[in-house]
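tool=predict chain=A
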Amino acid sequence: MLVSERIGQLFVETHAGRDRLEFTEYGGGDAWVVLLPAELLPRRMQQPLARVLAAQGFHVVTLDPLGHGRSDRPADPQAYSVTVFAEQVVALLDHLGASQAVVGGTSLGANTALETAAIAPDRVRGLILEAPILDNGVEAGILTFGPVLLTARFLPLAVSALRRVTRSVPRGIVPFWAGIALDTCNQRPGAVAALLHGMFFGRVAPSARERRRIDVPALVVGHPFDLLRPLADAEMLAGELPRATLLRARTALEWRLRPQRLDEAAVQLVAQCWRTPRRRRRAGS
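tool=predict ok
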């Protein structure tokens, strides 16, 4: 089934000025879904799932948070944190005139979805959380992204050279996921250093106490044998969220290479969220 696709933009005010965010809409209607990419990846990584959900009648939006994809990339560490990204999701909903949405994402995108539910609970109808990074992924995150931060800070020409080489490859001649990898290499040294600095030293997820108060349906997908996004974090999160369902992926790449099973679970979760009336928050919660 073919669905309409439209690229849009919005502007958000920050302490440093006005920044532009880019997004893509799929389908239409009032049953909204917002999908967010993993750290440093473009929103296009969520295109396959967005198309599946839109074909089922949902209105899906994929967003490049600040520092990602085709959105602005300020070289200011204070511009980047999970809270700032969550505020951008709320700004997107305001821009679209959407009172509520199911919010989902992968890795950093999952953390941002959680944070959105924590700071704006009345705007989130449900959650799709693939491979969140919580307590068990901290050390692996430092080992993975620490060298990238140091390279961007002290060897910026290496990052710029990689960007020039990968930008010269036409995306139309390479497979979809190869194109995503090439787009991920399209980084500016100052911006990527600022983003990773913000991730290391800013808030990366709601606290366990806050997570236990997120009372919406949630699909938590855990990756086996993934050091950066350990299954233990997904299991812990599924135990904390009052209405979560844990689904273990067969491999860390199942949703990329053989997505049917996980796509079906996501469709069921979104359908459940929009079929069931939104619970009112308990007084004092």
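The chain has one domain: 5-137+203-275. The first strand starts at residue 5 and ends at 14.
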